[in-house]
């Protein structure tokens, strides 16, 4: 089988490539250039796609004796991931750019080009598993990335391979060291890859600009002014620009954001309770939409907890009624529905949250 391996220059994708070679596949490595002006060096574990990362990926490919290329996806990445991220925050939402990158770049643009060039599949270093075409959690629960892959369609999953999802991360590092790969001890990337400084508010402010509004309490009393709703997210407690706690000495949290009026409402923790999730653009990883209500567990953050609920398709929206309330859910987040089983939780569906009531 001809396999294209997306090689970021990190330890996970490097071991994924090595395992594909060991399996006897015809393997080609490709590094995605996602920045029009990549930095020379990474800053610790922040950022990715630097010239250093590309060099690391190339050296691994040389050791594995596989062809290696760098594909420029910078324009597509800016349009489908960065611009989408900025626009979502401007609407008062809280998006996950990793979800969008997997959906639009790695398993849409990249996979489409790979298939057009005659490859049979795309392999990545994601921590997830595929079983009979079904997406499941990785063995390593702490590193599981099935959440950010849950937007993939059944057709995309048919052409995907996740070679390391059956192995805990410490063993992946040990394997890389045994293979003589210099990336064995390379720090993991985290935070938002295109904001290496980690200062999301400044990044958004430079692109959205100043859009003054007000911070109000539950009764509508004005507590402060702000420079833009992009500086806030549901459940936020710090950096609200208000003096002190609520009237009874309890902490105050962002409970609602109205981007049209520029209003940010704050209240106590109980106002964050959510019992119903409504999502748009649902994706059913099996390829078949629900024909009846389905019991499952919902996750609304990449590393968040699970909440039991009943999901059903209503028109073009996926609606989940929760068995118990969860807190701090924002429009723009991705909700993923899992079905627990003995073989590892299976991803059933995902949707972009439109409302949380």
TrEMBL record:
Top EC group: transferase
PANTHER family per record: MITOCHONDRIAL TRNA-SPECIFIC 2-THIOURIDYLASE 1 (PTHR11933:SF5), TRNA 5-METHYLAMINOMETHYL-2-THIOURIDYLATE -METHYLTRANSFERASE (PTHR11933)
Region forming the signal peptide: none
Function: Catalyzes the 2-thiolation of uridine at the wobble position (U34) of tRNA, leading to the formation of s(2)U34.
Segments of this protein annotated with the region Interaction with tRNA: 143-145
Subcellular location: Cytoplasm
Main location class: cytoplasm
InterPro entries: MnmA-like, MnmA-like_C, MnmA-like_central, MnmA-like_central_sf, Rossmann-like_a/b/a_fold
Residue numbers marked as site, Interaction with tRNA: 126, 333
Sample GO molecular function, one term: tRNA-uridine 2-sulfurtransferase activity
Reaction catalyzed: S-sulfanyl-L-cysteinyl-[protein] + uridine(34) in tRNA + AH2 + ATP = 2-thiouridine(34) in tRNA + L-cysteinyl-[protein] + A + AMP + diphosphate + H(+)
EC number(s) reported in the record: 2.8.1.13
Active-site annotation: 101, 193
Protein name, UniProt field: tRNA-specific 2-thiouridylase MnmA
HAMAP family: tRNA_thiouridyl_MnmA
Family, as annotated: Belongs to the MnmA/TRMU family.
Residue stretches making up the tRNA-specific 2-thiouridylase MnmA-like central domain: 202-268
tRNA-specific 2-thiouridylase MnmA-like C-terminal domain ranges (all copies): 277-353
Key words of the record: ATP-binding, Cytoplasm, Disulfide bond, Nucleotide-binding, RNA-binding, Transferase, tRNA processing, tRNA-binding
Positions contributing to ATP binding: 6-13, 32, 125
One Pfam assignment: tRNA_Me_trans_M
């Amino acid at each position: 089988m001809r396999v294209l391996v997306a090689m970021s220059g990190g330890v996970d994708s490097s071991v994924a490539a090595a395992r594909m070679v060991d399996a006897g596949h015809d393997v080609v490595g490709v590094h995605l250039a996602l920045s029009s002006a990549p930095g020379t060096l990474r800053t610790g574990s922040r950022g990715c796609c630097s010239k250093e990362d590309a060099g690391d990926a190339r050296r691994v490919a040389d050791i594995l004796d596989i062809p290696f290329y760098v594909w420029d996806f910078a324009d597509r990445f800016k349009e489908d991931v960065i611009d989408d991220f900025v626009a979502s925050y401007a609407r008062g939402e809280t998006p996950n750019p990793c979800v969008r990158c997997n959906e639009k770049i790695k398993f849409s643009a990249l996979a489409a080009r790979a298939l057009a060039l005659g490859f049979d599949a795309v392999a990545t270093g994601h921590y997830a598993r595929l079983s009979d075409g079904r997406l499941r959690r990785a063995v390593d629960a702490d590193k599981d990335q099935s959440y950010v892959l849950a937007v993939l369609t059944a057709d995309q999953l048919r052409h995907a391979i996740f070679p390391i999802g059956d192995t805990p991360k410490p063993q992946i590092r040990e394997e890389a060291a045994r293979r003589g790969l210099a990336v064995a001890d390379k720090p993991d990337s985290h935070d938002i890859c295109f904001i290496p400084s980690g200062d999301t508010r400044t990044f958004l402010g430079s692109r959205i600009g100043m859009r003054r509004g007000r911070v109000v309490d539950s009764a509508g009393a004005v507590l402060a002014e702000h420079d833009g709703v992009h500086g806030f997210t549901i459940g936020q407690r710090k950096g609200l620009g208000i003096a002190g706690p609520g009237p009874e000495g309890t902490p105050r949290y962002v409970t609602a954001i109205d981007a049209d009026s520029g209003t940010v409402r704050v209240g106590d923790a109980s106002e964050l309770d959510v019992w119903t999730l409504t999502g748009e653009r649902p994706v059913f990883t099996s390829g078949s939409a629900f024909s009846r209500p389905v019991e499952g567990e919902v996750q609304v953050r990449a590393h968040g907890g699970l909440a039991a609920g009943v999901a059903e398709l209503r028109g073009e929206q996926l609606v989940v009624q929760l068995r118990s309330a969860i807190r701090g859910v924002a429009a723009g987040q991705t909700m993923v529905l899992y079905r627990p089983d003995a073989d590892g939780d299976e991803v059933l569906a995902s949707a972009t949250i439109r409302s949380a009531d």
